[in-house]
User: Fold this.
Amino acid sequence: MSQAPQPLGSPVVRREGRDKVTGAARYAAEHSPPGCLYAWAVPATVVRGRITAIHTDEALALPGVHTVLTHENAPKLKQSDDPALAVLQDDRVPHRGRQVALVVADTLEAAREGAEAVRIEYESAGHDVRLTEDHPGLYTPQTVNGGYPAVRERGDFDRAFAVSPVQVDVTYTLGPLHNHPMEPHASTARWADDGQLTVYDSSQGTGTVRDTLATVFALRPDQVTVVSEHVGGGFGSKGTARPQAVLAAMAARHTGRPVKLALPRRELPAVVGHRAPTVQRVRLGAEFDGTLTSLAHEIVTHTSTVKEFVEQAAVPARTMYSSGRHSRTVHRVAALDVPSPSWMRAPGEAPGMYALESAMDELAVALGIDPVELRLRNDPAYEPDTGRPFSSRGLAACLEEGAARFGWYDRDPRPAVRIEGPLLLGTGVASATYPVYIAGSSASAHAAADGTYRIRINATDIGTGARTVLAQIAASVLDTPVADVRIDIGSSALPEAPLAGGSAGTASWGWSVHKASTALVRHLRERTGPLPGEGVTVTADTAEDTAVESPYARHAFGAHFAEVAVDTRTGEVRMRRMLGVFAAGRILNSRTARSQFIGGMIMGLGMALTEGSTIDPVFGDFTQNDLASYHVPVCADVPQIEAHWIDEDDPHLNPMGSKGIGEIGIVGAAAALGNAVRHATGARLRNLPLTPDKLLPYLP
Assistant:
């Protein structure tokens, strides 16, 4: 007898878990077609300039080396919408670390040895890699990431701020940050005799990679199949096609054999994107009762000379708080000789909300008002930027629930008064927000004669448990046990679906799965007699459903509470406990959701306390380019962390009533920890990460 259906929201164990822990799950670099060769890239060793000579004789003389691809002999590519993918096409070097040659050999060891034997001569030019808030090359772009206007003016900020009785005018700086997924960027490519290209790629969206490869190799999309069955994390860095997919396909075409390319970790920061550094000025004007009268958030950041990418760090300020109808949000950017920045978990919201929520804490201190109460007093009924009503806004509920669970009101608000031997203790709070994104998707639902079901959709599971949640959605509609639903995902040969990014995956894919399953139920009810041996399949597409603009402002919200201990002898900061409470619509799987929330919070912990990156002004590269120097949090850094959520019934989202949860966990986490450090020490530091060298001068 089949087990009873489990309701949507149950803590169903992820279905690929056993395959992953036993090694049965195969990742991009673990596909080895017969005759597979290995590739290793040669990165540029100058910051800016051009190649004047390439010497490959020594490399080609090594045993096992088949070829060395350079701009002189590599297949020519068609232009795509991403200039960063035009690898080995000319002699220009736009930044240090750009791939300028590719060695292909019988073994990985031979390819690496060959790459070390390639000698390249350059003509260097002057370079500029240093971002400053008054950089002479700063300009205002038309739009920023997500298509948002770069500048938004409401009312008369200058006048309103000037007459505000209480003012905060502060600047925060954040250095570059790096995604560093556990699985490196890798691709295995092979060409068939009929010209069909198949690529196993570590990607957040096979459809996007397929379309890019079809463009650059002048193919029809149906001539390319991209498979990303299992992906070991991405955090945005795998959200678009990356150079390894193009290079592997290029080498496979050139050699006539399958080629595998896995990028070494130390090369990732230069070629797969990074979170760009920001200088953020925040000005808040308020009445003595804490009512905001004016708000300005102005961002300075960098992009590369290869392509423009501007993180929308000031955009969250357009949503969060009432500002007396007087606000200014501005982004300015300088094109430097640096690797191209790109998406990193909660792009825009993560750095922007760090600055805004730190400034709100500074305002609370200036006013002598509790930081939770200050946020509650400025919680708007309508979205300040658009005037639209919120489909649901659970920020106040998150703050109130979090304060109760954390014991917030038991604290002494005075700074530097809680002492345990050499330790100073403090607590901090910050709000979080992330927009609801939903894109059109398609899916098929199949009923087999044996009573089981099969869902096919080109979703991508990047470690979030997408297979499991989609099976739950289908099972809830089909009124069948989750175990009776098979899910096929991770291939561009499946029904079209958007990539896993922007916390839009489950909301988008789930809608089409729900629609296809609903149509299948209807079809089965209308049938008479037994199913045919081949079963019955129906398809559904949500392009029209999602194209309708919502009259509501749709966002997820959250609140972070943190307690830290600061060692006065060493300057070391330790998180003691951390709590996140979130309002993200209907939670579809409590087990995987809690994992996502906590994972984001830990990433915010790294942003606040350990993860720091710098660009060497002379050599033009990221100094912290591996996990020995770029310090991500480990288990010992996370003694106690909890995630909870409120029940939120929002009928204006999708049939499941769900919002994205992959990124809301990181937003605000760094600010909560920074505010806790200020409460512990009395010192307000405005440059992350809060490492001992920065804190020691302020400690007794």
Q: What stands out?
A: Residues 12 and 589 are 7 Å apart (CA to CA).
